[in-house]
Structures are given as structure tokens and as C-alpha cells.
Amino acid sequence: MASGNVKVKAGTRPPWVGLAAAVWVQMAAGNAYTFPLYSPALKSVLGYDQRQVAMLGVANDVGENFGVVAGVLCNSLPPWLVLLVGAALCFLGFGTLWLAVSGTVLGMPYWLLWIALAIGTNSNASFVTAVLVTNMRNFPLRRGVVAGLLKGYVGLSAALFTQVFSGLLHRSPTALLFLLAAGIPVVCLSTMYYVRPCTPALGGEKEDAMQDGHFAFAQAASVLLGAYLVGTTVLGTVVKLSDAASYALFAVTVLLLLAPLAIPVKMTLFRKKKKPPPMEPPTPEEEPLLIPALDPPPPADEDSDEKVAVLLAEGEGAVVKRKSRRPRRGEDFEFTEVLVKADFWLLWFGYFIGVSTGVTVLNNLAQIGAAAGIADTTILLSLFGLGNFLGRLGGGAISEKFVRSLHLVPRPIWMSLTQAVLAVAYLCLAYGLGPGAVYASAAVIGVCYGAQFAVMIPTTSELFGLKNFGLFYNLMAVANPLGAVIFSEELAGRLYDSEAARQRRHGGGGGGHPHACVGPECFRVAFVVLAACCAVGTAVSLVLAARIRPVYRALYAGGSFRLPNGNQQHRRLRHTF
Q: Which intervals of the chain are annotated as region Disordered (predicted)?
């Protein structure tokens, strides 16, 4: 495998430099969130109707979440080359859209723009996979924290692009598309050298405590960045900012994005000198005896002896040649092996329920707010986005904390708890408890939705290994667009249109729009169905947690992570780069 020849960077600082570089790549990986910012230009400039724009939205979602190819590439190519592929896709896809919207090339067919948008957003799969896989391998003992931190930055990228679009680009869709086509590849080209495989840090208690402190700093910096972006977004809607003020606010954003780089800088400036072991003076009684025969023989390798015995027996016809055993949970699985594991499909189904119901609310949040009588739905979007970020960040950190506790709480427990909360939130929305309940439900659903990502990612790596983690992660990610089609379009969309048509026939609803629906009845049936699905998802996640608890006892007994098969697994981990 090509990736086996990739040079692994040694030292304690390179993994943190790579993590700081990954922050910028993750912010760039949120380019699919910009579709609502430039989609109005597709209607006004290109003359598309709402149905055509909605179909382009499908291309946006399909491209973002189809990452199987990126997962395969990540197993055979070094991370910088996977990032280079993503940069090329971004330039090609969004560059084509820029040519059409700017009027540089006229008369582009609709199907070509659909494909171009899917290609452009498919760059996210390469960005996220390369960064996530590399950092999970660089920090194998902090998988939950790494997953929550990096996925949290992806969640913040929507607020970053909104700040840039409103403040620096003066709400110009053409300028935004040019930024996506040229600016994002520049960011990736600038950082891809630093996103590289490093020797995993497997230290003692002092090193673990230092890592915990560094990750706590990175998490605090991300929370500060999230609060700052939300604050500047609200400020921009209330007060008209000058160009100088917009550039000053963006400069502070850049400084906050650079904050994780302070970790390797601090490690460079304040290096800890290793003290040499104390030398004891030799005594006459301790004169060395140069008699090699007195040294104890090295311990025999029982596995090797067993293999030799089996081979001899096979040669004599005493036994039939054995097939190599399948990997156990916690070891490295191959693609065909993971597909026949019940644990994989239980995890996939539980994750599918959590993200599918959450993305249904996200895709219909504007209509949900309007049906509840909320005029300005931007606050709902901000609450959901902030909750999404906190759920991703907190889901990884909290599951990491409890999985190392004395009780060894399996991570899927948190999927079951959040889905139980989702069921309650959907019932609150179904029975119309007022605008206040809608605001609270939007924030709660955002938190629970984000937690699904932060729990699924480390669980997948712990059960099925890091060797093919990029592929397995992207197989899990297929649940997102599939759920959007089933629950958002087919369930919620059809029921909403049906209720809107009923209200028009009876002369009610409308709200000034011929296809609008007003009242809790618009989504009531859909929310009840979503609540029932979350109840099923809760049960599935509990079953999975009970099944895999022995795995967590083996991995985390004593409060620290232990790689399966000891040093042999460590050597395998290093060669998977």
C-alpha cells in the first residue's frame, strides 16, 4: 500500500502543528453551508425557478456527503495529496458556478451546473476525511476529543462564511463564489504540508495531563470563537458596520483561528529538559562478570511456536490448514469484514435516526418558524447552529470523560440519551407550545444533532480500528443525505404541502404566500413520526452499548486507553499511514 511508505514525523510538537493547520481546513470544509447565500443569484441571474434551485440544493447535499471515494483514497494516498484532490474539486466546481453567475460564460446547461455544484461540495469529503483520519491516528488516545473539536469547527464555518459574506464581500454572490473557487484552494495548499502523519504520543501520566491541558485550551479557543462569531453576526444585523470595522472584526477572527497554534509555540519556547538518570558509583561487590552464559535466555514466542507446530502438522497431513481468524472488535477490520458485523449496522442505524431527524428540522427551520408565527427566522438558525457546535464539541469531550471513568460508560449511551431528548423536543414542536418553545427546541435539537457526529466518529474507530477508518467513517456519513431525502423531502415536505393545500381549500393559512402553511398542524404528523423514530433509535443505541461494553472494558480498564495486542497494535498503527 502506498500509504505504508509515507514518512512518519517524529516528535511531540508536529501533531499539534497539524491540529492547528487542520482547524483552517475544517473551516474551509464548510463551503456547502454557503448555498443559501448565493442561491438567490441562481434564480435572479440564471432565471431558475424554486424547484430548480431546490434540485441544486440536492446536488449540494449529495456532493458534501458522498465521501466513499475520499475514504478509499485516504488509505492509499498521503494526506497532502488527498487535500490536493479536494482543492482541485473545489476550484473546478465553484469555478464553473462563478463563470455562470458572473456572466463570463453564457448559456451553461442546467445539468452541467448541477454536476459542478456536486463536484465543488464534494471537496468537503476530501478535506474532512484527510484531516480527521490523520489527527485521529496522531492522537489515538484522545479520539473523542479530537473528533468533537474538529467537527465543531466545521459547524462554526457557516458563521465564518456569513461574516465574510456580509462584512467583507458586501453580500456579493459573485465575489463569494470566486472566494470559494480560489480562496479555499489557497488555504489548503498553504496548510497541507503540516497535516501529516506523526508518531502517536503514548506517554505516561505527565504526558497525558499535558495533552489534557492542551486540548482544554483548544476547546476554550473554539468556544470563544463561536461566541465571537455569533456576537458579530447579531451586531451586523443591528448596526450597519463600516468597511474598517468589518475588516477589524475579521482580523480578530483570524487571531482566534490561530489560537491552537499557540500550543506548539509554547512547547517550542518552554521545552522540558530531560534529566539524565543518576549514576551510581560502582562498588567492588558489583564488578561486572563477563560471562554471557549466565544471562537468562530470551522468552519464547508462544505464538511462533504454535505456528511452527501447526505448519509441521500440516506438512505431515495431521491437520487441515487453518484459515486466518477474523478480527475481533477493537482490531483493524477490512471493508468486507465490517459489512457482516451486527455492531456496524446497529451503530449505522442509530446514527441514521439521530442525524436524519435533526437534518429534517434544519432543512425546514424557516418554514417551522413561519408556521409558529415567527417573522424573523434568522435567530432560529443561529440558535440551531450554536447548539450544533456545542453538541459536537461537548459530545466528544463528555463521552471521552465518562468512557475513562470507573464505570466505563460506552459512547453509544450518549446517542441514546440525546435521541430520547430529541423525541421530547419533537413532541413539543408537534403540539405547538408557542414561539418560546420553538426557540428552545431549535437550540436543544441543534445540541443533540451535533452530538451524533462526535459520538459516532470515535466509536467507529474503537470498534473497527484506524486502518480503514476513513472508509468506514464515510460509509456512516451516507446516513445524512439518505435521511434528508426520506424524512425531510418525502415525509415533512409532502405533509407540509398537503396541509398547506388543505388550508387554501378552506380559505385559511397562506400568510400572504400562496404555498405557505400556518399553525402547528403543518408539521404535527411529521414531528410525531420523528419522535417515534427517535424512540426506536434510543433502543437501538442501548442495545449496541450493552453489546460492546466488553470492548470498552478491554480498552479503557484502569482509566486509560490500551491499544489491543500491546506493542504489536502500536506498530500496526504506525504503518497504517
A: 273-303
What is the distance between the alpha carbons of residues 134 and 137, in angstroms, rounded to a whole number?
5
Residue 136 CB contacts under 8 Å (≥ 6 apart), including other chains: 143, 146, 147, 457, 458, 461, 466, 469
Please report the sign of the dihedral spanned by the C-alpha atoms of residue 362, residue 113, residue 486, residue 51: positive
Q: What residue ranges of the chain have pLDDT lower than 50?
A: 1-4, 285-297, 300-303, 307-322, 565-577
Per-residue model confidence as pLDDT tens digits over 475-488: 998 888 888 888 88
**CA separation for the pair 228, 572 (Å, rounded):** 42
Q: Cβ(372)–Cβ(527) under 8 Å?
A: no
Secondary-structure breakdown of the chain: helix, strand, coil percentages, each rounded to the nearest 5: 75, 0, 25
Instruction: Provide the terminal-to-terminal Cα distance of the chain, rounded to the nearest Å.
Output: 10
| Residue pair 451/395 in contact by the 8 Å Cβ criterion | yes
Q: Is-contact 56 113, C-beta < 8 A?
A: yes
Contact between residue 577 and residue 571 where contact means Cβ atoms under 8 Å apart: no
CB contact set of 12 (below 8 Å; sequence gap of 6+) = 201, 267
Measured CA to CA, the distance from residue 260 to residue 508 in angstroms comes to 54
Q: Are 127 and 28 in contact (CB under 8 A)?
A: yes
Short-list 30, 151, 78, 206, CA closest to 458: 151
Alpha-carbon distance 379 to 440, whole Å?
Answer: 11
Q: Which residues of 367-401 are buried (b: 16+ CB within 10 A; e: fewer)?
A: bbbbbbebeebeebbbbbbbbbbbbbbbbbbbbbe
Per-residue pLDDT of 438-475, as tens digits, reads 889 989 999 999 999 999 999 998 899 888 888 898 89
What is the Cα gyration radius of the chain?
27
Q: Phi-psi bin for 448: left (phi > 0), alpha (psi -120 to 50), beta?
A: alpha
| pLDDT of res. 291 | 41
* Partners of 198 in the β-ladder: 9
Helix 435-464 / helix 342-363 crossing angle, nearest 10 deg: 150
Please name the residue that has the C-alpha cell 403543518. Answer: 522
CA 467 to centroid of chain Cα atoms: 18
Q: What pLDDT, on a 0 to 100 scale, did the predictor assign at position 60?
A: 84
Q: Burial level of 83, CB count in 10 A (0-12/13-18/19+)?
A: buried
Distance, CA of 526 to CA of 495 (rounded, Å): 7
Exposure on the CB side of residue 58, measured as CA atoms within 13 A: 14
Q: Which helix (H) or strand (E) holds 311?
A: helix 302-315
Distance CA 313, CA 516 (A): 78
Q: What kind and span of H or E run contains 310?
A: helix 302-315
At residue 577, the pLDDT reads 37
> In this predicted structure, what is the pLDDT of residue 324?
63
**Predicted pLDDT at 569:** 42
Q: Which residue has the cell 434551485?
A: 53
Residue 16, φ and ψ in degrees, nearest 5: -75, -35
Cα–Cα distance, 209 to 396 (Å, whole number): 18
CA atoms within 13 A on the CB side of 547: 18
Q: Tell how many helices (H) and how many strands (E) occur in the chain.
A: 24, 0
For residue 9, the cross-strand partners are 198
